[in-house]
Specification:
Strand content: 15-25%
Largest sheet: 8 strands, parallel, barrel
Helix content: 25-40%
Shape: globular
Number of helices: 15
Length: 576
Amino acid sequence: MKRVILLSAFLLSQFGTSQLLKTDGKKIVNDKGENIQLRGLGLGGWMLQEGYMLKTADFAGPQYKIKEKISELVGEDGMNDFYKAYLKNGITKEDIDFLAKSGFNSIRLPMHYNLYTLPIEKEPVKGKNTWLEEGFKMTDDLLKWCADNKIYLILDLHAAPGGQGNDVNISDNDKSKPSLWESEENQKKTIELWKKLAERYKDEPWIGGYDLINEPNINFTGKNPNGTDEMSNAPLWKLQREITEAIRTIDKKHIIFLEGNGWGNNYNGLTPIWDDNMVFSFHKYWTNNDDKALEGIMELRDKHNMPIWLGETGENSNVWFTELIQLLDKHNIGYAFWPMKKIDNTAGITNVKITPEYQKLLDYWTNGGEKPSRDYAYKALMKIADNYKFRNVEIKKDVIDAMFRQVNESSTLPFKNLQVPGRIFATEYDLGRIGSAYKDNDFINLWVSDPKKRSEWNSGHQMRNDGVDIYVCKDKDTNQYYVGKTETGEWMQYTLQSKSDKSYTVNIRYASEKGGSIKIVDPSGKQLMSISLPSTGGSENWKTFTAKGLILKKGENKIRIAFENDGVNLNYFELK
């Protein structure tokens, strides 16, 4: 296979002015010795799908089962058409340009081995490797887009040959076939794949490193002579060492990222470190953001004088994101959030919009009934594939703000330019930290640290990723959403631009089973207006209540709508 060399990268490496990463004790540095904290995003769902990303988890979790479901409706050719469009649209130069502009300096690429080589059972000659151009070409293109933006690309083998664990969804593991750990052929193919990748990218300075095996999760057997199971991870360390040795026969420059068992966090039985340019990768979900949560991995860093990297994290609230990054910044730990794109995504930086036609397919797969025609299903699938294009996704600016600006600033920004007189939708409250832009009683999910702290934060799963609960609104006048599940003491802040000094009439569009009271206050807590709202006869029975006397000055005004009891659902308020 002819190797593609990026000319600019080649010249950089030849003249010693590249930004090639390496380790220096507990730090990752560039070739100038400057500390580099990786601020990254994982491209989950592109080369490898998981059911929850496509809303198929209830009936098809691993990718091979998703493909089976699609083939049942549109045939194998139709399924192949869908995946061709899906892979083409899923990540493009526009996506990478956007990530760089947003502030990310690195990308983690979760790779499915079957885009690079055939499964062992499909090899024409047993024990040989057929190389597929598709995966390598996708990686080449992605690397060029990263290099153009001066951001690093970390290669992550997310689905290893045979599958690397019992969690079948994350590695497309078909339990009817031998796993990575049960098959010497699969292990050899894994080693050879990494060797091939190293041959192709050994001179590329914007390759940030090689993440050898994503989230192994397997119960290895084996005992120490003293009867403990400390060495039960021996097969994992053995294979990762063999992969490293194969890479190092070709590429002695790039960082090796090493993941433990148990979704990257179990380093029991770790053998003596076998390479001087390695980083420990750990994963963190649904745990407290405090020093105690990092104790184990930081002890590993200190013991081996090696850097650590949070290779995967996310799927939580904006509050959790901000607090986590603050903690990581404190300890000089890089990270890669997960994922970039999925359908109905509130906890990511972009959202792929679902369509009614695709929802009909989901309903059929879930409940049965009348089978959609091939033509209908094909068009529905191709439309969803089209929605993955960058120009068609919804940018989640609240998530980006939480991951960058809010880490260092407690100030608020307007969600949009809100002019009064005018109508203000309840969901258009300011961007900012909890306690500054809003207050909500359920705002984070910590169930791994404490099962009693499982929370949906935004229990409506719509529009924004803060603690404020946002639901689909069926009122006649709406921006599609309303704020609901309100509780005593919660509030949202709005930045309004008033055209003049004026006493405004306030029309409040709300629904409430029992009625309730709200206050309008300024950020200091000074009361500007108090309003008692009568029952509307139902939690989605919308009515308008009018109150007079809200005084605003010309120019910028910050006001807060505060709930004095539970159960007032708010669509909008209008100032006249």
